[in-house]
TrEMBL record:
Gene3D superfamilies: Galactose-binding domain-like. Residues 123-224 form the DUF5126 domain. It comes from Membranihabitans marinus. Residues 263-388 form the DUF5000 domain. This is DUF4959 domain-containing protein. InterPro entries: DUF4959, DUF5000, DUF5126, Galactose-bd-like_sf. PROSITE patterns: PROKAR_LIPOPROTEIN. Residues 17-121 form the DUF4959 domain.
Length: 392
């Protein structure tokens, strides 16, 4: 009993001694390191790249910059490894002068005397993107055009003024594409006040573009008028039901090109539809075959495709106008064969695609698949739907 008591006392003493021990850096490298030197600034849109030389000090761990992007904002800190001779600063929302403090920091987390550096970022991307922003009326809503040459991340915000004069946030569109065409739907064909602006990932904001626009009236094209145009070079040979199943509603009324037709198989591949009337075409929905995961973002489901229009259907592609290049996007970006809940939701809803506004109407359309999700040499789809306005 006494032995156990003595062991308890010893262990308690050791624990207390450990707690009382002064916390010290893991590496004892002395005091304050020398400051960095030989500073050179390269200003960039919304930021700067600062080059420097490091002192001959093997204990130096990294270089740290401290700065504010606004007068009353929090202090930002950015670090750069000693294996680099520069540090990059981003997120400045204005084209003006900013003061930066640069420190060398050693392995003991001791900071050098700060070096004061002045930068003057060039005009931030969010403002140059705004300069390229163009808006117009579209079928059932409004369309946005944007040029983003440097492919920077951005968000376009859309608001509208409701019936009691209140502004309502309606939609946000995230993109880093070079060319952006995006349409928002769900509006009546009456004059409406809209507001558009752009933000970046640092929440810098552009000016706001206000516009009164009247969305164009749209309706779903009457599929009872559609038929297979059956041009000589079409691959409309079905594995199961005829091409008309492509526009017949239902979970099992799908169209598969005949994969056993070796002569006709190959990419690109296409089919032609007679719409029965001339239409100004505004948008489209494509539903993938979905009664099994095999075809959800896989197998013969189109991934890259084009839509063409014509009023003089021919096997001569010069008689056709390209209406749009499209890509099926899998929300999760998981490899083929793996599906997230977001993928399944999007697949069930179908994918929406918009056409740029045009004063040309068409009676015939061609669906041209360039690549399928499974890289097979034939395509399949559950249903194709188009919206627009009949050309009376």
């Amino acid at each position: 009993m006494n032995g156990r008591f003595i062991c308890f006392i010893l262990i308690s003493y050791l624990l207390i001694a450990c707690d009382a021990e002064e916390k010290k850096p893991l590496v004892d490298v002395g005091g304050q390191p020398q400051a960095i030197f030989n500073i050179r600034v390269e200003n960039k849109p919304g930021g700067a790249k600062i080059y420097y030389s490091l002192p001959d000090d093997p204990s130096m761990l990294y270089v740290m910059a401290e700065y504010r992007t606004t007068d009353k904002g929090d202090v930002q800190r950015v670090k750069s490894s000693v294996f680099k001779n520069f540090i990059e600063l981003e997120g400045f929302g204005r084209e003006q002068t900013y003061q930066i403090k640069l420190y060398g920091v050693n392995r003991a987390e001791h900071k050098s005397t700060p070096v004061d550096v002045t930068i003057h970022p060039e005009r931030p991307y969010v403002h140059s993107l705004y300069d390229s922003l163009k808006v117009s009326a579209a079928f059932g809503g409004v369309a946005i055009n944007l040029k983003n040459i440097d492919e920077v991340d951005n968000v376009v915000h859309i608001s509208y003024k409701d019936s009691i004069g209140e502004w309502v946030d309606y939609d946000r569109y995230y993109s880093n594409s070079k060319e952006v065409y995006y349409a928002v739907r769900g509006f009546e064909a009456k004059p409406t006040q809209f507001a558009f602006w752009i933000t970046d990932k640092w929440q810098n904001s552009s000016d706001t573009l206000f516009a009164e626009l009247t969305p164009l009236y749209e309706e779903e094209l009457d599929k009872s008028l559609w038929k297979d145009a059956a041009l000589l070079d079409d691959f409309n040979d079905p594995l199961y039901g005829p091409l008309s199943q492509l526009w017949t509603p239902g979970s099992r009324t799908y169209f598969f090109q005949n994969k056993n037709n070796i002569e006709a198989s190959g990419m690109p591949t296409w089919i032609t539809i007679d719409l029965g009337k001339n239409y100004f075409i505004g948008r489209m929905k494509l539903n993938q075959v979905s009664h099994s995961n095999t075809w959800r973002y896989g197998s013969c489901s189109p991934r890259l495709f084009q839509i063409y229009g014509s009023n003089s259907p021919s096997t001569d592609w010069n008689k056709w106008d390209l209406l749009g290049d499209f890509e099926s996007i899998k929300p999760s970006e998981l490899p083929v064969g793996q599906l997230s809940d977001a993928d399944l939701k999007r697949n069930a809803e179908g994918e929406d695609f918009s056409f740029q506004s045009s004063d040309q109407s068409y009676r015939y359309v061609r669906f041209k698949a360039l690549e399928t999700w499974g890289n097979v040499q034939y395509m399949c789809a559950l249903e194709l739907t188009l919206w627009g306005q009949v050309d009376e």
